[in-house]
From TrEMBL:
<feature type="binding site">
    <location>
        <position position="241"/>
    </location>
    <ligand>
        <name>sn-glycerol 3-phosphate</name>
    </ligand>
</feature>
<feature type="binding site">
    <location>
        <position position="243"/>
    </location>
    <ligand>
        <name>sn-glycerol 3-phosphate</name>
    </ligand>
</feature>
<feature type="binding site">
    <location>
        <position position="127"/>
    </location>
    <ligand>
        <name>NADPH</name>
    </ligand>
</feature>
<dbReference type="InterPro" id="IPR008927">
    <property type="entry name" value="6-PGluconate_DH-like_C_sf"/>
</dbReference>
<feature type="binding site">
    <location>
        <position position="266"/>
    </location>
    <ligand>
        <name>NADPH</name>
    </ligand>
</feature>
<keyword id="KW-0443">Lipid metabolism</keyword>
<dbReference type="InterPro" id="IPR013328">
    <property type="entry name" value="6PGD_dom2"/>
</dbReference>
<dbReference type="Pfam" id="PF01210">
    <property type="entry name" value="NAD_Gly3P_dh_N"/>
</dbReference>
<feature type="binding site">
    <location>
        <position position="242"/>
    </location>
    <ligand>
        <name>NADPH</name>
    </ligand>
</feature>
<feature type="binding site">
    <location>
        <position position="84"/>
    </location>
    <ligand>
        <name>NADPH</name>
    </ligand>
</feature>
<feature type="binding site">
    <location>
        <position position="178"/>
    </location>
    <ligand>
        <name>sn-glycerol 3-phosphate</name>
    </ligand>
</feature>
<keyword id="KW-0560">Oxidoreductase</keyword>
<dbReference type="InterPro" id="IPR006168">
    <property type="entry name" value="G3P_DH_NAD-dep"/>
</dbReference>
<keyword id="KW-1208">Phospholipid metabolism</keyword>
<keyword id="KW-0521">NADP</keyword>
<feature type="binding site">
    <location>
        <position position="125"/>
    </location>
    <ligand>
        <name>sn-glycerol 3-phosphate</name>
    </ligand>
</feature>
<keyword id="KW-0547">Nucleotide-binding</keyword>
Length: 320
């Protein structure tokens, strides 16, 4: 069993925290799972938490990672994040400049907290199932061996296997692109195109995810692992996925805004899709499924036309 750590849950919303303390639950996000009795809850400043901690795990969406890392930067504490995606392109970003496209977590960390030991904890893991103690396997990715080991020692246990991987580029590309592909499979299933079509999307999606990863410096075998194939299969087929739900809602005729509003939780693929395509184009990488998702999210094509565009592509060899 993992060691009995002292764990403090920090939240920026003091009212939400007070409610969690009162009810012993997180009614908004995991209403059916009582919080562990040993869990401390704190709304003190993040700096105060960082000063006292041996390890910080950040569970904000990608949109909050930069700001959170900036607050943690002065403290010599190792940090891992759970968020999966590319940072949304910032308004006013200078085309051609380094801020012209959204970044992965480790690229953000290199900009705002280069002295910290950082990593990503990723892999197929619906939060609800983890909270229920159902068997789950994760990957702890970092170029820093001590941090990988710290994450394994802190979290590996009877219900949670944690594998270490030094390929943080591959692990982060896998976590980001699978969300975009899950929108595509949600759409495919929402249109009732069949199981053959879904399997084709997953397989060809894995191919385009791997192409982007390799162009960004990842290793191919990472995409056969938990953060590649593993998380793609889970998110593309599991009905708990918010990204998959966005695709299903679009197929049912909802607008993107209606789909996003009805979730009440972040669907990172909606924000990452444009960056995925933008970075792929800059690198000369073909990502036709992601391109279709972007055209759909931007309202340039209707759901059925997106499918027709994919099926209408010319024949290709399966491998390059
Ligand atoms: N939910 C899952 O099953 C799951 C599993 C693995 C990874 N993830 C990833 O974790 C990230 C968060 O997902 P989620 O499901 O918790 O999203 P969510 O939308 O359900 O909740 C996000 C929480 O982060 C808070 N938040 C937003 N910006 C913040 C900031 N700057 N500082 C502090 N808190 C902030 C919000 O108030 C909210 O409480 C996403 O990148 C997601 O891809 C989610
Ligand atoms: O609900 P989603 O689509 O954000 O997926 C959650 C996790 O990333 C699955 O591993």
């Amino acid at each position: 069993a993992p060691a009995a750590h002292h764990v403090t849950l920090w939240a920026r919303d003091a009212a939400q925290l007070a409610e969690m303390r009162r009810s012993g639950r997180n009614a908004r996000y995991l209403p059916d799972n009582p919080l562990p009795a040993r869990l401390a809850l704190s709304a003190d400043t993040l700096a105060e938490q960082a000063r006292a901690a041996d390890l910080v795990i950040v569970a904000t969406p990608m949109a909050g990672l930069r700001e959170t890392l900036q607050q943690l930067a002065p403290w010599p504490v190792p940090v891992a994040w759970l968020c999966k995606g590319f940072e949304r392109v910032r308004d006013g970003a200078d085309a051609g400049g380094s801020a012209a496209f959204g970044l992965l977590g480790h690229e953000i960390a290199a900009q705002v907290a280069p002295q910290l030991a950082v990593g990503a904890l990723s892999g197929p893991s619906f939060a609800r199932e983890v909270a229920e103690g159902r068997p789950t396997a994760l990957v702890a990715a970092s170029p820093n061996a001590e941090l990988r080991q710290a994450l394994v020692e802190a979290l590996h246990g009877p219900a949670l296997r944690v594998y270490a991987n030094d390929d943080i580029v591959g692990v982060e590309v896998g976590g980001a692109v699978k969300n975009v592909l899950a929108i595509a499979t949600g759409l495919c299933d929402g249109l009732n195109l069949g199981l053959n079509a879904r399997a084709a999307l997953i397989t060809r999606g894995l191919a385009e995810m791997t192409r982007l990863g390799l162009a960004l410096g990842a290793r191919a075998d990472t995409f056969m692992g938990l953060s590649g194939l593993g998380d793609l299969v889970l998110t593309a087929t599991g009905d708990l996925s918010r990204n998959r739900q966005v695709g299903q809602l679009l197929a049912a005729g909802h607008t993107l805004q209606q789909a996003v509003d009805s979730l009440g939780h972040v669907a990172e693929g909606v924000y990452s899709a444009r960056t995925v395509v933008q970075r792929a184009r800059l690198l000369g990488v073909e990502m036709p499924i992601s391109e279709c998702v972007v055209a759909l999210l931007d309202g340039q094509v209707q759901a059925r036309d997106a499918v027709a565009a994919l099926m209408g592509r010319g024949p290709k060899g399966e491998t390059h």
